[in-house]
Design a protein that fits this description.
The chain is an alpha+beta fold and about 550 residues long. The chain has 4 domains: about 60 residues, Phenylalanyl-tRNA Synthetase, Chain B, domain 1 (2-Layer Sandwich); about 190 residues, 3-Layer(bba) Sandwich (Phenylalanyl-tRNA Synthetase, Chain B, domain 3); about 70 residues, Phenylalanyl-tRNA Synthetase, Chain B, domain 1 (2-Layer Sandwich), CATH 3.30.56; about 190 residues, Bira Bifunctional Protein, Domain 2 (BirA Bifunctional Protein, domain 2), CATH 3.30.930. It is about 30% helix and about 30% strand. The strands form 6 sheets. Strands 4, 5, 6, 7, 10, 11, 12, 13, 14 and 15 form a 10-stranded mixed β-sheet that branches. The radius of gyration is 37 Å and the shape is elongated. The chain starts with a strand and ends with a helix.
């Protein structure tokens, strides 16, 4: 989170608020944490989605809006500058836009410090530490000329006086010997030893994103600023320039000067100061907030948040989003600002009285009951992934659904049955005391005639020194009877891994498949490395749930 530091008295005077606690309360409503330090400074932790509040001017604009002292947004006064900016193709940092702000009037060292702080917070956040965008502030009256050029030049043969220096140095030396050069020098340096430069009438005024030239140094007494923004994304370059210009234009008597820009990607005036029109529905805002509001109320609240109202509609309001609000993307962002204007402490949950009661699905009730009953019958529950090994399923003679682009081959198919997973668990637990009785409840995915069938099932297995089909048959019969599920037994079993004649199928009276049970074939146990006999059962809980639902409806 960006943390800004100001002298408290300076910030209060600039905003026109003389109560520190009132200021802190308003900033808290604007999602800013504050801390007053012992040395008379205030730290303001600004939410990263509000870069327009990284400066005194941005904070002032937002605070005065919530206080009701100022409303809406006005377009800055614009005028021509006579400056022209041209750009050639710059491989490593292709985009540049620029602007002038007149009557910034830097009065003292404190004023200068906070303008530089604004620049650096934008560098560190939106600028990704100057990799995405970089900002240059120049004293307009010190520019060598009106013809501004953005060029890609060799560092070995390009010289200028770096900021804070007194003698010319080659750009290559600046990259190697200055703190800024070491820190940022590799960001935009091309493989051929070229680097972006900004020139005024042929004289270097900046080496973005590294350092400015000393000849356009901004200092106390600087009246007008020439601002350049370079970067790797045109949209971000434009937005950042709009934020800077809009904020500095809030200063007394300030106005914005435009340049004509001629570049490979854009021809026209800069800054663009792009606004957007958005419509906010009163019904949408009311539902989102749980707070009834009308189009007229919305208009008032959004003006408080410094939007310009284009028109009030029968169903909502149409607003103009200022160019410095780069965080506004959709309707819900406007709703958030409406909530801030109302005050979150004025919004509270209203519980709707619902005339009906919620309840579990029948399938959920069945699964919960089965789990409790199986534990009561002496079985231990295991939980495994729906993804499993194709090798395991192939060994058991089962078809399966394969996952495209699996992360691991061992987990590349969807399980059609829970029994293979239980056998894997038993294989790893052959050393424990017998019998070993386990069960699992989970989803299975089975290929059926070119489609996929998903079912929740129960599988249970018993491993012992000696095993007969009755060891699994008894608990399964008990389970079904407790659940009040009538069933019939057939001697045919669809499981390819069961011993023929030692297995059976379960069906409801109407012929629906409930599941099957039996003993695992010795050859399958041998392939899986299991040394003890195993009896198993698998029930379709969806079929049980369906039967229960039908019988309830009949009742």
């Amino acid at each position: 989170m960006p943390v800004l530091k100001f002298q408290l008295d300076y910030l209060l005077n600039r905003i026109g608020v003389h109560d520190a606690e009132l200021l802190r309360d308003i900033l808290f409503r604007l999602k800013c944490e504050t801390d007053i330090l012992e040395d008379g400074q205030i730290e303001v932790e600004v939410n990263p989605d509000r870069p327009d509040m990284y400066s005194v001017e941005g904070i002032r604009r937002a605070v005065l809006g919530l206080l009701g002292r100022e409303k809406g947004w006005r377009t800055p006064r614009l005028s021509g500058t006579g400056l022209n900016l041209s750009a050639e193709k710059v491989e490593t940092r292709p985009y540049i836009l620029a602007a002038v702000v007149y009557n910034v009037n830097i009065e003292d060292e404190e004023d200068l410090k906070y303008i530089i702080q604004f620049q650096e917070k934008l560098h560190d956040t939106i600028g990704r530490r100057r990799r995405k965008i970089a900002i240059g502030f120049h004293d307009l009256e010190k520019l060598p000329g009106k013809r501004i050029e953005y060029k890609y030049l060799p560092v070995a043969s390009t010289e200028f006086i770096p900021l804070g220096g007194d003698t010319p140095s080659s750009a290559a030396e600046i990259l190697e010997e200055t703190e800024q050069g070491v820190k940022y020098g590799r960001i935009s340096l091309g493989e051929e030893g070229k680097h972006p430069f900004l020139l005024a009438d042929g004289e270097v005024i900046a080496m973005p994103p590294v350092i400015n030239s000393n000849i356009t140094r901004v200092e106390v007494g600087t009246r007008h600023l020439f601002i350049d923004v370079t970067g790797t994304d045109l949209s971000t370059v434009s937005k950042v320039l709009d934020i800077i210009v809009s904020n500095l234009a809030e200063r007394p008597d300030a106005s914005v000067g435009t340049l004509y820009v001629d570049t490979p990607y854009y021809r026209g005036l800069s800054p663009r100061l792009e606004t957007r029109k958005m419509t906010l529905s009163a019904e949408y805002a009311s539902k989102a907030l749980g707070y009834y509001t009308t189009p007229q109320t919305l208009a008032h609240l959004l003006e408080t948040m410094r939007y310009k109202i284009d028109s009030i509609l029968p169903h909502g309001v149409r607003v103009i989003v200022p160019p410095y609000r780069a965080d506004i993307i959709g309707e819900i962002d406007l709703v958030e600002d409406v909530a801030i204007a109302i005050g979150y402490d004025a919004l509270y949950p209203r519980y709707r009285v619902i005339p009906t009661r919620g309840s579990y699905l029948t399938s959920t009730e069945i699964a919960r009951s089965v789990r409790i009953l199986m534990v009561g019958l002496g079985f231990t529950e295991v939980l495994q992934l729906v993804l499993t090994s194709p090798t395991l399923l192939t060994l058991m003679g089962l078809d399966y659904v394969r996952v495209e682009n699996p992360v691991q081959q061992e987990y590349s198919v969807l399980r059609p049955s829970l029994v293979p997973g239980l056998l894997s668990v038993l294989r790893e637990n052959q050393h424990v005391s017998k019998p070993v009785k386990v069960f699992e409840i989970g989803d299975t995915i089975t290929p059926v005639d070119g489609t996929i069938s998903e079912n929740m099932k129960l599988a249970a297995a018993v491993m012992d020194v000696e095993v007969s089909m009755e060891l699994i048959q008894a608990p399964i019969y008990t389970l079904l009877r407790i659940l009040d599920i009538p069933f019939e037994v057939e001697t045919v079993c669809p499981a390819p891994y069961a011993i023929k004649g030692r297995c059976g199928s379960l069906k409801t009276p109407d012929g629906s498949d409930l599941g099957f049970f039996g003993e695992i074939h010795p050859s399958v146990l041998e392939r899986l490395g299991i040394e003890y006999p195993v009896a198993f059962a698998e029930l379709n809980l969806e079929a049980i749930s369906s039967w229960k639902s039908r019988t309830r409806n009949l009742e």
